Amino acid sequence: MNVSRPAVHPVEAPPLMEVAVRGPRVRMKDVQGMPGTKGGLFLRLSQFIFAIISVSVMATTNDFRSATAFCLWSLSLAFVDIYALLVRRSLRNYIVIRLITIGDGITSTLTFAAACASSGITVLIDNDLDKCAVNHCTRFETATAMAFISWFAMLPSFLLNFWSLASQ
Hints:
By secondary structure, the protein is mainly alpha-helical. Helix content is 64%, strand content 0%. It has helices spanning 19-22, 38-59, 70-86, 94-128, 137-166. Helix 2 runs antiparallel to helix 3 (70-86), helix 2 runs antiparallel to helix 5 and helix 4 packs antiparallel against helix 5 (137-166). The protein is elongated and about 85 Å long.
C-alpha cells in the first residue's frame, strides 16, 4: 500500500528589512472623480446643479416650506476642488479624505432616502389617491427625478473617496 506521508521542511523567516532599504511608500495616482481632480469637480458641480434644479422645482409649488442643505455640501466641496485645481495641490490628507468620505456617505444616504420617499408619495398621490389634478404631480415627479440624478452623481464620488480612504 502506497500512502504518501507528510514531510516537514523547516522554513526560515525572511530577514527583517530596514525602512531605508524598503524605500518610500508609493502614492496612488489621482483617479478622476477623487477630490482635487477635474472629474471630482465635474461630479460636485453636477450634484449641485441637479440638487438646485430639484429644490427650485419644489419651491415653485405653494406647498414648499423649507430648503435643503444637500446642495450646500456639494457647492462647498466644489469650491474645495476648484481651489485644489488652481493651486495644483492634491487632496491626499487622511483627515480631509475621511471628513469628505463621511460627509458624502451621510449626504448620499439622505439624498437617496429623500428621493425614495418623494417617489413613494408621488405614486401614492398619483395612482392610489388619484388626486394629481389638485396637487402638483408633474413638478413633484420632476423634482424626484432630479433628486435621483443628483444621487447618481453623488454615488461615484462617495465610492472613490471611500476607496481612497481604504487604500491609505
